[in-house]
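Bumping with the actual sequence this time:
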Amino acid sequence: MQDTKYEALQNGILLPQTDSLFKLGTDSVLLADFADPPRGAAVCDLCAGSGAVGLLLLARDPSLTVTAVELQAPSCEAMGRAVTENGLEDRVRVLQGDLREIRSLLPAGSFRQAVCNPPYYPAGAGFRPENEAQAIARTELCCTLGEVCAAAGWLLKTGGSLWMVHLPGRLADLFCALREAGLEPKRLRPVCPRPGTAPSLVLVKAVRGGKPELKWDAPLVLSNPDGSPTEEYKRIYHIQGIEN
């Protein structure tokens, strides 16, 4: 695809940026920083898009392996080119498929770690994407929140962790869907644009078969009162070549 460009990450990894697909956003960067799989872990990236979250994880920890599940063929093609460009054929598996049919794609309990930046908006909620690819990436046209959580519940072993990012306004929906899938919310971190502002995102860790106990992290604040980036924002965005 002629509109594909690459951003340089840590450890020499290149991230594809394609104008016609859903581009890298702050939510993916924050999710990859929030997720904390152990060294050498096999991670499943659901709703992988062009592979941003998985590649960001690999840039931070080259010992990981990633299986990326994505519905849209153009996104899978972009991800496949990035895998080849980065020489990651032994660390990244790109799996084109519908997570609503996850039982035919991957075995039950085949991962201990999973990440997901899912569609945020219910179909018909008023979100207006620029094109069909962005509509599928950001609205529940092809999978609901419940179906995303059900897929993660199928894939994770007991005790396995799912790391997600979502909107604060859908937190009740998210927690209900997680519990319905046997995933217990264990950790939550709100993301606030500035001190004293309401959260714009939430980062959530859930554990399959975990006991009920939710711990709140201190808010992640992105900007100081004067609009300058906070120290934590700068730490997260030390990845060369990425701008908000």
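The tokens above came from a reply further down the thread. The chain has one domain: 4-236.
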